[in-house]
Specification:
With 286 residues, the chain is an alpha+beta fold. It is built from seven helices and eight strands, in the order ααααββαββββαββα. It has helices spanning 3-17, 37-43, 46-50, 88-91, 134-147, 227-241, 267-277; strands spanning 113-117, 120-126, 160-169, 175-183, 201-205, 208-215, 246-256, 259-266. The radius of gyration is 19 Å and the shape is globular. It starts with a helix and ends in a 9-residue tail after the last helix.
Amino acid sequence: MSRALILILLLVGLIVASPPHKYTKKKGGKGHHYWNATENDALYTWEQAEGYLECEEFLNFPNLGQETKDLKLDERGYVRKQGKPRALEHMCPTRDCVPDVNSTEESPGCGFKRRTLKSGNWTTTNINLGRVDWFRDAYKRLAPYRGGEGNSLKTRIGMGVPIITKWYLDANYTVISATMSFYVPSLYQKNPPASLNKDVRVEQWDEVVTYSRTWGGTRDDVEYWPQSAKQFDYLSEALSREDLKWYSYLRLTGSYIGRKEVMLADRDIVVREIKEKGPDSGVESE
């Protein structure tokens, strides 16, 4: 499977999986499914929403005095074709975010956010890459665990955000497997209930440093879907500029309502995990 096909799979999965976007809370609706995009845009700058200072070379052309109607301009006067991502500060107070996902840890350089994600329990299932609807298929397999019918407590426990998809590559950068994971909410982190589905497992992830980029918008935006194909290239370029090393054979994507992220993991941390766990780490050794 080529690198181009990897990006196609990411793109198809995002298209199939993304629910219709809601911009205000409906009467009787569950609050975390609805968010006010207008409020988000007004309260947070682009840098606050993205979580990092964007590199100028990754930005679209500056607005050189042309008509501004229907153009999205950031605070530096650059035209933004994609929508502003939902700020984590806007989201995490009402959602059970993964610890430190909204870290204020300072990132060197521009174009990415550096975060140290703490060790924690996740529910995970393997992705069937042979399916066009691979994201929805895996999501539906994980959903009963959070809903109660799929866990040993028989209690609805919910889930944290983001949903994380891991892509495992071999030495030829071919996708050999992929997984989808929900974060076990903080109330159940220390003693998560067992899974009743043999295809859904509870696993503890080690602490890891990640580097991420994000984008937002709606499915109606012309530039929304193509962003997933660009962001890994931008991220690797930004990290190379700062001489930061990432693990080449593992890619991650994070999904929120109103926000998508691509992530790469710090090379030294993943290599150390491989040495400690051996083949059980599930990733290719460099």
